[in-house]
């Protein structure tokens, strides 16, 4: 019953901005890491940005300075603020989470989930 729900994708003009959201719902004890990946047409899936439970973050080198990842721990939600968008940013963006969830009382397990993907299209 644990799942990731993404929102915020759409069509935007070059130079514009979008904010993606990914909410983890269900019985969650803690979050090890949450992040965003993207896959452009004909390309391999690549890391966009991710953050760990320790607070460290990492970005794709070409995106740092335009994209910002943040998290609301109370809502189990991660955001991706995308500014100065370029046509080459067009891709399906996927949320990824590594979670700690209860299996039985006092027993926990790691669970990795992917969101369904949200399409971002940047027109020139």
Structural description of this entry:
- This protein is mostly beta strands.
- Helices cover 0% and strands 62% of the residues.
- Strands 2, 4, 5, 6, 9, 10 and 11 form a 7-stranded mixed sheet that branches. The chain has a 4-stranded antiparallel sheet with strand order 1-3-8-7, with no helix packed on it.
- It starts with a strand and ends with a strand.
Radius of gyration: 15 Å
Compressed to H and E, one letter per element, the order equals EEEEEEEEEEE
**First and last CA, distance:** 40 Å
The number of helical elements comes to 0
Main structural class: mainly beta
What is the helical fraction, as a range of percent? Answer: under 10%
The dominant shape is elongated
Number of strands: 11
The proportion of residues in beta strands is over 45%
Q: Largest beta sheet, briefly?
A: 7 strands, mixed
Which regions contain 5 or more consecutive residues with pLDDT less than 50? none
Q: Helices, strands, pairings?
A:
Layout: E1 3-7, E2 10-13, E3 18-25, E4 30-39, E5 46-52, E6 57-59, E7 67-72, E8 77-82, E9 91-104, E10 107-114, E11 118-123
Parallel strand pairs: 2-11
Antiparallel strand pairs: 1-3, 3-8, 4-5, 4-9, 5-6, 7-8, 9-10, 9-11
